[in-house]
């Protein structure tokens, strides 16, 4: 039986945050490990305040966390938020694979004897 996702399970905030190319690039940069805002800003063509705003949105979406280390804010990926978002996206593949299997099963060529 094919399942339907409940609307309450939609990771809207994460998908909205990942809808921006700069935020996707920040997530990608953090895949290498935790980095400070200054380190991230040095690698991007946008201002440090803009990087901070993007990181704040990613944090609200549950995709990154931050900790204060002295005067530096260090950001890291949040495995729980990423896992939840990935699971939601993967559910579409599971659904598509199940539908494809049903179509293949129901449209398989049937052997007919000549003279039918």
* Total beta strand runs: 3
Elements, N to C (H/E): HHEHHEEH
Structural class estimated from helices and strands? alpha+beta
- Low-confidence segments, ≥5 residues, pLDDT <50? none
Q: How many strands, what sense, and barrel or not for the largest sheet? A: 3 strands, antiparallel
- The averaged pLDDT comes out at 85
Task: Estimate the global geometry from the Cα principal axes.
Answer: elongated
Count of discrete alpha- or pi-helical segments spanning 4 or more residues:
5
> Within the largest sheet, what's the order of strands?
1-3-2
Radius of gyration: 22 Å
Structural commentary:
The chain is of the alpha+beta class and 116 residues long. Helix content is 55%, strand content 12%. The protein contains five helices and three strands, in the order ααβααββα. A three-stranded antiparallel β-sheet has the order 1-3-2. Helix 1 packs antiparallel against helix 4 (48-60) and helix 2 crosses helix 4. The chain is elongated and about 75 Å long. The protein starts with 11 loop residues before the first helix and ends in a 10-residue tail after the last helix. The mean pLDDT is 85.
């Amino acid at each position: 039986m094919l399942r339907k996702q409940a609307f309450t399970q939609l990771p809207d905030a994460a998908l909205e945050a990942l809808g921006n190319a700069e935020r996707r690039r920040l997530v990608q940069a953090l895949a290498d490990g935790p980095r400070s805002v200054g380190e991230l800003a040095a690698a991007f063509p946008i201002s440090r305040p803009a990087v901070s705003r993007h990181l704040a949105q990613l944090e609200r979406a549950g995709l990154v966390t931050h900790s204060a280390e002295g005067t530096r804010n260090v950001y890291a990926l949040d495995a729980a938020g990423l896992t939840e978002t990935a699971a939601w996206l993967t559910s579409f593949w599971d659904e598509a694979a199940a539908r494809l299997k049903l179509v293949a099963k129901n449209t398989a060529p049937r052997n007919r004897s000549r003279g039918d």
